[in-house]
Amino acid sequence: MSKVQDAVLSKLPITQDLFVKAKTGTGKTLGFLIPAIETALRNNDVRDLKTGKRVSVFIMSPTRELALQIAEEAEKLLSFYPFQAHCFVGGTSKGLNKKIISTRRVDFIIATPGRALDLLSENTIFQKQIEGTKLVILDEADQLLEMGFRDTITDILNRFPKERQTFMFSATVSPQIRKIAHLALKPDHIFLDTVDPNDVNTNLKVKQSYVVAPLTSQLHYLRSILEKHRETQSQGGKIIVFCPTTRTTALFASAFEAMGYPIYELHSRMDQSKRIKIAQRFKKSPNGILFTSDVSARGVDYPGVSLVVQAGTPTSREQYIHRVGRTGRAGKDGEGVLLLAPYESGFLKGVSDLPIEKSTEFTPIAESPETDKAVNKALRLVDPVLIEDSYRAHLGYLTSRAQDLRFPKSETLPIANDFYKGFGVEEPPHVSESFLSKLGLLGKRDKFSKRGGHFGGSFRSRDDRLVADRYSNDNGYERRPRGRDFQRSNTSSYGRPSNDQGRRSWHERGSRGSREHNADRMDRMRRESRDQHQY
């Protein structure tokens, strides 16, 4: 029994509101599900127990993955009782949710804030069903606030009966959390602190290190990190690689899949059913590599993860901690590696009190000409449309991080260009002036290059190249010219081209005045318009 489970379960039967400070990965899900079942059995009348037409327990979770994980645990426990649990999250059919509300028992509902508010606002049956709710649980309350759900939480809580019980679980107790506690909990609530005051909030069993690598070598350093770790894992071991954007996640996953690695890809642009299937497959895998965005950063438990790599800076100290927390769980050893570019090294000041040491063991693998040729061949299989979309999203990401990472916006383009050189892209994809203007980058270089080729040609001015040289210190790792012919696939989604037509270069597919070029240009403009709203 974990510390949080012991602290909560020793209070049974719990008749007051509860505020528990507890870290993720400490068994708190069972810590609130068991009291929830006890509360539902104790407070429901015979009629409600028989029909199941009232929501006895409502659990709010910040992310879909965590909500599904809670629902999975709830279903196991409720198999011994006359209750049913359902999970309502974004990305799933709202119509199916409404059908469940109308036709099934709704004893336990686990939901994300957005979907919960939608159903409570639109469905009169659901509004009626929560009138008798006995217990509301806010899990990961600090993350709910971090994700901007304060107003949504307030709206949802005001819809439940005032005489209910409320449990709130949070890894931190900030002034913002105290405000939510004041709103949600009764004045006589019980406060339980299960976090050791001497704990630095990261598992000391996790060996933590960082590497600062040249922009052009990020892909190769990551490959070195993965290879060296896999060599030490005779019994297998899973790896999670966190990436800064969903499209960078897809790009890394595609590149390493083409190199023959057993990869899994998980990010918020996937539909919910696909995310569930991939998460389940990775859980069962003995030694796969999961490339993911922050949908997997907190609360979600993947057993057997022996290494967490963060490719690029987290957005905060807390995010770094939660990502590292995916390994070293259940008393097992783990390792965390932070892979940074030179412009990101300032992040280390904010985590200087954590046991993160500089590593010198990770250098790009010394490759034979045959291996180098194989890697280049694998990179050529990565869908050019994916590279183009990823590049554009990366510009948005860099623009959004320029202030907190303290680099001038004028260096955004050369930083992105050098990063993508590591993927064999010598000439950056074309990006429209309107897109650059909306990112505030249009005046950050002298002018567009008028040379043709490669999705509209290079737009790096001479001054851009001079600025980029500051980020090209190879540290002994020689930059290899790849001379990749940037191509557009004929596939409709990210993947390998299906025939020779898909492998033809931009120039081979016709002049700039061709109808095919204009159609591709319009397609690119539509994607740019969509991506402008991401950051």
Topology at a glance:
Blueprint: H1 3-9, E1 18-21, H2 28-43, H3 46-51, E2 57-60, H4 64-78, E3 85-88, H5 94-103, E4 108-111, H6 113-122, H7 124-129, E5 135-138, H8 141-146, H9 150-159, E6 165-170, H10 175-184, E7 190-193, E8 206-212, H11 218-232, E9 238-242, H12 246-258, E10 263-266, H13 272-284, E11 289-292, E12 305-311, H14 317-324, E13 334-340, E14 356-358, H15 369-380, H16 384-405, H17 412-421, H18 433-438, H19 462-468, H20 500-503, H21 515-531
Helix pairs in contact: 1-2, 2-4, 6-9, 12-16, 16-17, 17-19
Overview of the structural elements:
This protein is α/β, with parallel strands linked by helices and 535 residues long. Among the domains are: 3-193, P-loop containing nucleotide triphosphate hydrolases (Rossmann fold); 202-381, P-loop containing nucleotide triphosphate hydrolases (Rossmann fold, 3-Layer(aba) Sandwich). Helices cover 42% and strands 13% of the residues. It has 21 helices and 14 strands. The protein has helices spanning 3-9, 28-43, 46-51, 64-78, 94-103, 113-122, 124-129, 141-146, 150-159, 175-184, 218-232, 246-258, 272-284, 317-324, 369-380, 384-405, 412-421, 433-438, 462-468, 500-503, 515-531; strands spanning 18-21, 57-60, 85-88, 108-111, 135-138, 165-170, 190-193, 206-212, 238-242, 263-266, 289-292, 305-311, 334-340, 356-358. The strands form two sheets. A seven-stranded parallel sheet has the order 3-4-2-5-6-1-7, with helices on both faces. A seven-stranded parallel sheet has the order 10-11-9-12-13-8-14, with helices on both faces. Strand 10, helix 13 (272-284) and strand 11 (289-292) form a beta-alpha-beta unit. Helix 1 packs parallel to helix 2. The longest helix has 22 residues, at 384-405. 45% of the residues are buried.
